[in-house]
Amino acid sequence: MNDAAILLQTLGIMVVSAAVMMLLLKPLKLPTIVVCTVAGLLVGPITGLLDAGQRGDADGEVAGAVDQAIEGISHFGIVLLLFLVGLELSLDRLRDLGRVTLLGGVGHVIVTTTLGFLLSLLLGIPMVAAILVAFAMTLSSTVVVIRLLEQRRELTSLHGRISVGVLLIEDLTVILALTVLASIQPGETPDLLAAARRLPLALVATAGLLGLAILASRHLLARPFGFAARRPETLVAWGLGWCLVFVVLAKLLGLSAEIGAFLAGISLAQLPSAGDLNRRLHPLMNFFIAVFFVSLGAGIDLRAATAQLPTVLVLAAFVMLAKPLLVAFLLGRLGMGGRSAMLAGLCLGQVSEFSFVFAALAAKTGLLDEAMVGVIAAVGLLTILLSAWVIQHADPIEGWLAARGVPRLLRLPPEPPAPTVPEAHGHVLVVGMNAMGRRVVDALVAAGEQVIAIDSDLAKLRGRPCRVLHGDIDDLHLLEGAGLDRARLVVTALQIEPVNRLLAFRCRERGVPCIVHAFDGSLVPDLERLGVDHLVDSKMQGNLRVVSILAEEGIARP
Amino acid sequence: MTEAVLLILAAAIATSVAQRIRLPAIPILVVTGAILAALPGVPVLDVERPLPQLSLAFLVFAVGLEFEPSRLSGQLRGALRMGLLQFVVVGSLGAILVILFGHATIVAAYVGLGLAGSSTIIGVRLLVERGQIFEPFGRLVLGVLLLQDLLMILGIAGLAAVRGGPWAMVAEVGTAILLFAVAYAIVRLVAPRVARGIDHDPEVQIIAALAVLFAYLSIAWHLDLPFAVGAFLAGVSLSVFPVGGMVRAPIAPIVGFFSAVFFVSLGSSLTLPVGRDLLLALAALGLVLVATPLTVAVASRGLRLPRREAIEAGILLGQCGELTLVLAVLGYAQGELAGGMFSAISLVTVVSMMLTPLLATDRMAWWLVGRLAPPTPAPLPPLAGHVVLLGCGRNSRMLLDLLRVSNPDVVVVDRDPGVVAALREDGVRAICGEAADPAILDAVHAAGARAVVSTMRRHADNLRMLRRLHRPGGPLILVRVFSDEHADALVRHGATVVSESEVAAAEAVLVAGSIARALEPAATT
Asked: Vertex A5, ends B347 and B343: CA angle to 5°?
C-alpha cells in the first residue's frame, strides 16, 4: 500500500468512527469534540484499530509519513480554531468586555492557578510540573462553552456574555503561555528563569504583531477584502492566506503559530465580511479539529491515566467543583448578581482543549513527562464530558445550589433585574436582495414588520432599512443566526432553484410559513410536490401586467 | 508547514487573478502552481504525495455531489444522444491522434478518454452566469455534462484494470456499475430519513458526509477499484434532495480548500511539453475546440435544437474537464503516462478551460449563426395593427392565450421548431427563428405592428430588437424584465417595461399580509 492509500485509510477510520459515535451518542447531546475524543479512544488505545490501519506497510516507513500528515492536519486545525476565535473577537468587543470580565478573568486565572498549584504539590507532583498542571486545570474550553451556550441560546444572556469574556481572557493567557513554551528549545534543560528572561522579548514580539494587526485592520484590509468578498472562494483563500502570513511572521519572531493565527483573526474581525468568512471556514475547521480530537483520543495513554486514577479524580473534582465556585465568588466580589455568577461559574467547570495543546508542547520541551500529559488528557476528557451535562442542566443545578445556601456562603449579591438583550422573534426573513427582495423588504418595513434581509453579496445589503445578515442561506449556521425557528415568515426572492428548494424544505420541517419565488414555470410542480403553499410566479404576474397595459392602451380588450 | 503556506498563498493569488480577469479558477490555479515550481528555491509540491491525493478524492467527491438525477429529468434522451455522440467521436479521434503520433494503445486510451469529457464546473458556472441553467437548453447541456462525468468515472475504472486484459476491464466497470446501483438504491430509501435527523447540526452533517466518502473509498479499495471511483460514488449517493442540498453548503469550503491544493500541486508537478509532445498537445487542443462543437451540432439536429443554441452548446462543451486532470494524475501515478504526456494532457485541459469563457459570448454565437444559419423563413403576407409576441416558451403560453382572447391578430416568433409547429396546428400565425434577428423581425412586419411584446430572457437580445424597432410613431414595445438595471437600460432604448420583480414583490407582500392575518387569531387564542 502506498502512502496516499494509508493516509486515506487512516483518515477513514478516524472520520467513520467519529460519525458512528456521533450517531450512537446523539441522545446524550454531547459536544462533537467529546464524541471525537471518545471515538479516538475507541479506535486507539481500546481496539488498536488505528495502529492496525497504519501497519499497511511492513517497514513502517510510510506510516511515519502518514503520521506526519495527520499531525499536520491536526496542527492546522488548532491554527484555524485560534484564527476563528480571533475572528469573533473584534477590537470593539474586546473593549466592551468591561471591568467585570477583565478583572474576573485575570483574577480567576491567578487564583485558580495558585490553588491548583498548591493542590498539585499536595498530590506529589514536582514543582515545575505542578505549575503547568495547575495552569492547564485553570483553562476552560472556549469551543465547548460557546457551542453549548449557542445550543441553549444563552450566548446573549448576562452569564453567557461574561463566560465568553472570561474565556477570551483565558485564551489570551494561554497564548502567552504557549509563547513562553515555544521559546524553550526541545531537549534544553528546563530552566524557568531562562524562560522568564525570554518572556519580555516574546511579549514585545506579541505586542508588535498585535500592533501590526490593528494597523492592518484600520488602514489596509478593508479594500482588498471588500474585493475578495465578492466571490466565496477568493474570500476563503484570502482569509487563510492572511492567517498564514501571520503564522509565518509569528514563527519568524519566535512566537507560536497559534498566536499568529489568533492575531490574524483579530485583524479581520472588524471587517464586514468577517461573519461570512467565519461561517465559511467553520466546516474546514470542524473537519481538521475532528481529526485532531480523534488523534488526541487515540494518543491518550489509558494505562498511565488509570495508574494515576486518584490524581485524575482529585484534579477533576477541583476543576468541576472548586473552579466554578471560585469564579462565582470572584464575579460576586465584582458586583455580579448571585444567579448569573453561579451560572457563569458552572459554565467554566471543565478543562480546555488548549490544555491538551499546552501539555503536548510542555512535553516536547521536557517540562512535563508523558504520564502527566496522560493525566491532563484524562482530566480534560472527564471534565468536558461531565460539564457538557452540567451546562445543559445549569438552571436546575443553580436552583439546587441556591436552595442549599451556596450563594449566601459565597456572599454573592442578589441578582439585579437583568437587562434583556433583544432577540429576533416573530420576524420576517427576506432572502435574496435582488430587485424583488429589495421591494419586499421596503414594503414590509413600511408596514411595521421586523425584517431581517439576507444576501451573500455585501453590496446588496448596504442601505437596507432593517437588520441584515451576510452569507449563503443554505448555511445552517446562518439560518440559526437569523432565528429561523422563531421567524413568523420567510420570503425567498432568490433565483437559485436548489437553494429555494432546500430553504422551503427546512421551513416546512420547522413549521415556518415560506413564500417562494417561482421564477420559472417549470419549477412550480416541483415546489408544489415539496408542499410549498405560497408560490409567487413572477412570470405569470408579469403576463397579467402585460395584458393590463395592452388593455389600457386599447390594443386588447380588458 | 512551508508547503501549506506556499499552497494557500498561491491559491489566494490565483483566485484573485481569476476573479479580476473573469476566468475560471481551475486553470489559473494550475498555472500558478507551474509558476511557483519554476521559481528558484521553491520546492516542487508533488501531486503524487498524500495531501494532493487526498485532495483529489475530495475533488471527485464534489463532482459526484452534483450528480442529482432529477437534474436530468426531461432531458435524458437528448443528453444521452448528445453526450454519447460527443464522448465516442471526440474520444475516438483523440485516441487515433495519439496512435498516429506513435504512442502505445494504453496511452491512446488515456488521452482519448481524457479528451472525450467536458468540464462540469466550467459548464455549470457559465450556464448560471448567463441565466440559462433552467432553460431546456441549459438542462440539456447539464445533462450531457453529468452523463459524461459518469462515463469518465467508468472509464477510469476500466483503465485501472487494463493490464489484466479486456475481461478484467469489463469486470472492473461492471463492479463500478453494480456499486453505483446498490448505492443509489440504498440512498433513495435511507437518505431522506437520515437527512431529517441531522439537519439541526452542521458539524454532524460534515462528519457524516465525510464518513460516507471514506466508507466508499474503503469499499473501492477492497473491490480493487481506483479510489476516484469510490469518491465519485460517495458524492452521487449524497446528491439526492434534500441530502444533497444540506451537504453541498458545509462541504463546499472543504472541497474548495482541497481543490486548490490539488490544482496548485498539479501545476507544480508539470513540465512544459516540448517536441512531439507539444505538437500532440496542440493537435489535441484543436481537436477539442473544433470536433466537439461540430459533433454537438450534428447531435442537435435530431433534437430540433435551434441553431444558435446548438452552437452555444458546442462551445460550452468544447473543453476538457477536471476529471481529465484526475485521469492524467492517476495515469501518471500508475506509470502508464510519461511525464511529457501527463503535461501535454494537462496543458490541453488548462488552455481549453481558459478559452471556453472567452469563446462562449453572444458575439461569437451570432457570428457563427450568421455563417451557418439556414435561410430566413419567408415573410408573412403584409400585416398592420397586429400584436407580435417575441418568444412563446412555457412561461409565455398563458400570455398568448390571454392575448388571443382579447386580440386575435397575434403573430408569434419562437426559436423552437416544436413550439412553432404546435402553435400553427392551433391556428396561430407563427414563425421559427431568433426573435432578435432583424430579418425575422422584418418577416413578421414588426415595425408596422400596434404592439410588440418581448419575453426574451437575454438583455442583449432585447436591446438588439429595440435598436431595430424603436422609432417615433412605431409600435408600443413591451418588455418583460426582472432586473432593475436592465429595466433602466431598456427604458432608455424606448421600451415600456413590465417589471416582474415589481409585480412579484407586490404579490409576495399581499400573500405575507394574508398569512399574517391568518396567524393573528391563532396567536390571540
From this structure: 10
| Closest chain B C-alpha to A455 CA, distance in angstroms | 15
Contacts of residue B215 in chain A, CB cutoff 8 Å? 12, 16
pLDDT confidence tier of residue A93, bands split at 50, 70 and 90: low
Find, among B109, B120, B108, B115, the residue nearest to B89 by Cα.
B115
d(CA B27, CA B34): 11
Mean pLDDT across chain A:
83
**Shortest Cα–Cα distance, B286 to chain A (Å):** 31
Q: Read out DSSP for A366-412?
A: TSS-HHHHHHHHHHHHHHHHHHHHHHHTHHHHHHHHHHTTHHHHTTP
**Banded model confidence at residue B373, pLDDT cuts 50, 70, 90:** low
Q: CB B283: neighbour CB atoms within 10 A?
A: 17
Distance (Å, whole) CA A377 – CA A136: 10
Confidence of residue A63 (pLDDT cuts 50, 70, 90): low
Of B133, B217, B503, the CB nearest to A8: B217
Is A216 touching B (CB cutoff 8 A)?
A: no
Question: Chain A contacts of B501, Cβ < 8 Å?
Answer: 434-436, 439, 493, 538
Q: A17 vs B246, which has greater pLDDT?
A: A17
Sheet containing B410-414, strands listed edge to edge, beginning at the edge strand earlier in sequence:
B429-432, B410-414, B387-390, B451-454, B476-481, B496-499
Chain B CB within 8 Å of residue A452 CB: no
CA A392, A395, A400: angle at the middle one, nearest 5?
120
B445 phi/psi in degrees, rounded to 5:
55, 45
The ipTM of this complex is: 0.79
Phi-psi region of B29 (alpha: psi -120 to 50; beta: other; left: phi over 0): alpha
Strand A451-455 to strand B387-390: parallel, antiparallel, or no bridges (unpaired)? unpaired
Q: Which amino acid belongs to residue B380?
A: L
